[in-house]
Specification:
Layout lengths: L1 H28 L8 H12 L5 H20 L1 H24 L7 H21 L6 H12 L5 H20 L2 H23 L4 E7 L3 H10 L5 E6 L6 E9 L4 H11 L4 E7 L16
Helix pairs in contact: 1-4, 1-5, 2-3, 2-7, 3-4, 3-6, 5-8, 6-7, 7-8, 9-10
Length: 287
C-alpha cells in the first residue's frame, strides 16, 4: 500500500511539473516567439533546411536514441515516467492553448518569469526521475559521465548552443538573447529544485565552553562532531565543533553559541550539498 501511495504521489508531482511546463510555454514563450532551445530548437533548424521533415517527426527521431540509453541506464520505471511526462506535457500545451489565448508580454519579463515557471516544472519532473526528453534527458545522461557538473550547468551549455544556432539560422538575435535570459533563469531554478533540499550551512565553533554549547545544540536536534584543533600561535589544544545545519537553523545555532560564549570563534559557511542522516540520501544512479 505504501508503494502505491508513493507511486501516486510521484505521478501527481510529475503532472504538476508538466502543467507548469505547458503553462510557461503557452504563456511566456509562444506569444513572444522565444525559443527555449532543446530538441525543439534543433528540429526547427533542421526543418528550415529540409522542410519535408516535420518538426514532430524530427523530435521523435532525435529522442529515440536517448530513450534507449535512458532505459539501459535507469530502468523501465524511468522510461514509463518519461513517456508519461512527454505525453502529459504535449496534451497540456494544447489544452492551455485551446482554453485561453495569451497575449504577448514585455520580452524581458517573459524571459524572466517564463524561465522561473519552466524551471520549476522541469525541476519537479527531474526530481521525480522523469523527463520530457530532449536536452533534459541528454544532460541527465551526461551527468553520469561528468558527475562534478550540476544538472543545470550541463543543460545550460546544451541549450545555449541550440539557441545560438537558432539565432544564426533565423537571423533573429533579439529573441535569441531573450531566450538566453530565460534559459539561464531556468537552469538556476532547476538546480534549486533538484539540489536545494540537500543544501545547508556548515558551522565551525571553537569555544572554551564547548561542552555547554554541545549539550545545548544536541538538545535542539543539531548534530555535533568534535574535531581536535590546535592554535598555531598559542599552541593550545581544544576541540572544534563541526555542525551541518539547515538554513532555517542558522539563527538558532548562532544564538545558542553567542548566548553561552560571546567570545567563541564562530564560522558559518555554505555547504553545496549535505548527505546523511537528517539530510539528503546518496543515490548512485540519481542526480
Amino acid at each position: 500500500m505504501r508503494a502505491i501511495t508513493k507511486t501516486l504521489k510521484s505521478y501527481a508531482i510529475i503532472t504538476l511539473g508538466c502543467a507548469l511546463y505547458a503553462l510557461s510555454f503557452d504563456w511566456f514563450y509562444v506569444p513572444n516567439n522565444l525559443t527555449c532551445g532543446g530538441f525543439t530548437g534543433v528540429a526547427q533548424i533542421v526543418n528550415f533546411f529540409v522542410p519535408k521533415l516535420s518538426i514532430g517527426l524530427l523530435l521523435l527521431v532525435l529522442n529515440a536514441p536517448l530513450y534507449v540509453q535512458g532505459l539501459r541506464r535507469f530502468g523501465f520505471s524511468f522510461l514509463v515516467k518519461s513517456l508519461y511526462a512527454t505525453a502529459a506535457s504535449a496534451v497540456l500545451v494544447d489544452a492551455f492553448a485551446a482554453l485561453h489565448t495569451f497575449r504577448p508580454l514585455e520580452p524581458l519579463l517573459s524571459g524572466l518569469y517564463g524561465g522561473v515557471v519552466l524551471g520549476v516544472g522541469c525541476g519537479l519532473m527531474l526530481r521525480e526521475e522523469a523527463t520530457t526528453g530532449g536536452t533534459e534527458l541528454a544532460s541527465w545522461l551526461l551527468k553520469r559521465r561528468f558527475p562534478h557538473l550540476s544538472l543545470g550547468s550541463i543543460l545550460l551549455g546544451l541549450d545555449l548552443a541550440v539557441i545560438l544556432s537558432y539565432a544564426a539560422v533565423f537571423r533573429n538575435l533579439d529573441n535569441a538573447l531573450y531566450g538566453g535570459v530565460a534559459l539561464y533563469v531556468t537552469t538556476k531554478v532547476i538546480d534549486l529544485i533538484v539540489y536545494g533540499g540537500n543544501t545547508g550551512k556548515l558551522a565551525h565553533i571553537i569555544s572554551a565552553r564547548q561542552e555547554e554549547i554541545t549539550r545545548e545544540l544536541l538538545d535542539n536536534g543539531v548534530g555535533v562532531t568534535k574535531l581536535q584543533a590546535t592554535g598555531a600561535y598559542t599552541k593550545t589544544e581544544r576541540p572544534m565543533l563541526l555542525c551541518a545545519v539547515r538554513r532555517r537553523e542558522v539563527v538558532m545555532v548562532r544564538r545558542i553559541v553567542k548566548e553561552i560564549d560571546p567570545d567563541a570563534f564562530f564560522i558559518m559557511c555554505d555547504a553545496g550539498e549535505v548527505l546523511g542522516e537528517g539530510f539528503g540520501e546518496y543515490k548512485p544512479d540519481g542526480l
